[in-house]
Amino acid sequence: MNLSERDQAVNWHPYTQMKTAGNAIPIVKGQGVYLFDDQGKKYIDAVSSWWVTLHGHSHPYIAQKVFEQLTTLEQVIFAGFTHEPAIRLSENLLKLLPENQQKVFYSDNGSTAVEVALKMCIQFAYNQGKEKTKILAFENAYHGDTFGAMSVSGRSVWTKPFGEMLFEVIFIDTPTSENLENLKKIIKNNADDIACFIYEPLVQGAAGMLMHNPEDLSELMKFCREQEILMIQDEVFTGFGRTGKLFAADYFSEKPDIMCFSKGLTGGTMPMGITTCSKEIFNAFLSEDKYKTLFHGHSFTANPLACTAALASMELLLNEETQEKINLISKKHSEFSRTLEINPKVENIRQMGTILAWDFKTEHGTSYFNTIGKLLYEEFLNKGIIMRPLGNVMYLVPPYCITSQELDFIYLAILEVLEGV
Ligand SMILES: *Cc1c(COP(=O)(O)O)cnc(C)c1O
């Protein structure tokens, strides 16, 4: 049996209808922007392997640092013990975040970072003898697949089988200059019951790269602050340069109370989640009363290897060279947008920094289940490019190591595919 057949015999893949899915492509090697399959064919990873890879695959600097750590200290319980990689990572990360972010809580992935954030907010109220159990979130939000994260995500086919078991959330539209006053009214009417507002800042990734503008979200954040509603800014996708700035937070003057990170945190090399919070949140858990403790933790909390990978990745990210590459990608994307604008098969072109998205015009409308996605996916694979349309939404989220020529190669392929279908 070849690798695909052996895989099919034993593995159950994520977000995959296993009855109709074709064979998974065995990848045997990753290098920079490329992935290589078992037949030696190479693919440009234009989606950063589900939005995680920042500096390219198998980056030698990150590999070296992780190897050194692996032979020094690979894991240690993080209750009662600590280690330098976690201390340095927290120090370095907090320096880059809004100055009200003062404490770092480690977990394993984006979903768990969100779970921790939700627990912090709900228990923040509980510890002060208040009962606030409703959550405010955006329609079409995606915050992960564990139950809490699923609860605060927009209701969809993904959440449908669990509908009855998800907790109570007030969903509002993302802000525009037209609907802002109405959104404020909804918030004001429920303010006393709302434990927190959770949102993906600027880009709703999984919803199909939907974007809203910084001024409108800023305004909404200011209003939540006035209403004393805690804010959880989920930067699991937008963090670490994707939006053109280091964090989406850099677009706003108002500061969230809590922030969530994962995906690009380790440069996409290893799973890790981080939830940061303000002094006020942290202090609400300080007490002689043991019941006020945040009883949450994962076996691999602050794993030293993942911390080391994150430290190395952040070092690379802050390099002048990487910052220039981020600017280059943003600039080239906006140039390509102008070419797309005149393409009759394209609509709703949108860009935020290194993230470029548009809708493929179809008579069936925009939806995750639009079958054009599968067709486009295969067209691009044939051309040696990994793009993974969300239904008829096509997007690019390339690793920052991509060159100008490689971007041109992708842009040309996009025009050819659009021409052909
Ligand atoms: C991917 C994602 C998550 C979930 O992260 P996982 O590591 O897949 O659990 C949460 N929030 C946002 C905004 C995401 O894009």
TrEMBL record:
Provide the GO MF annotations for this entry. Answer: 2 iron, 2 sulfur cluster binding; adenosylmethionine-8-amino-7-oxononanoate transaminase activity; dethiobiotin synthase activity; pyridoxal phosphate binding
Q: Which organism is it from?
A: Chryseobacterium wanjuense
State the source organism's domain of life. Bacteria
Family membership:
Belongs to the class-III pyridoxal-phosphate-dependent aminotransferase family. BioA subfamily.
Q: How does it assemble?
A: Homodimer.
Residues reported to bind pyridoxal 5'-phosphate? G110, S111, D234, H298, S299
Q: Which reaction is catalysed here?
A: (8S)-8-amino-7-oxononanoate + S-adenosyl-L-methionine = S-adenosyl-4-methylsulfanyl-2-oxobutanoate + (7R,8S)-7,8-diammoniononanoate
The cofactors named for this UniProt entry are: pyridoxal 5'-phosphate
Per its record, how is this protein called by name?
Answer: Adenosylmethionine-8-amino-7-oxononanoate aminotransferase
- UniProt-annotated site: Participates in the substrate recognition with KAPA and in a stacking interaction with the adenine ring of SAM, residues: Y15
Q: Where does substrate bind?
A: W50, Y142, K263, G297, R388
Q: Where in the cell is it found?
A: Cytoplasm
UniProt record, GO biological process: biotin biosynthetic process
**UniProt cross-references to Pfam families, sorted A to Z:** Aminotran_3 (PF00202)
Q: Tell me the InterPro entries matching this sequence.
A: Aminotrans_3, Aminotrans_3_PPA_site, BioA, PyrdxlP-dep_Trfase, PyrdxlP-dep_Trfase_major, PyrdxlP-dep_Trfase_small
Write out the entry's keywords from A to Z: Aminotransferase, Biotin biosynthesis, Cytoplasm, Pyridoxal phosphate, S-adenosyl-L-methionine, Transferase
Cellular component annotations (GO), alphabetically ordered: cytoplasm
User: What are the N6-(pyridoxal phosphate)lysine sites (modified residues) in this protein?
Assistant: K263
Sum up the protein's function in the record's words: Catalyzes the transfer of the alpha-amino group from S-adenosyl-L-methionine (SAM) to 7-keto-8-aminopelargonic acid (KAPA) to form 7,8-diaminopelargonic acid (DAPA). It is the only aminotransferase known to utilize SAM as an amino donor.
| E.C. no | 2.6.1.62
- Give the record's pathway: Cofactor biosynthesis; biotin biosynthesis; 7,8-diaminononanoate from 8-amino-7-oxononanoate (SAM route): step 1/1
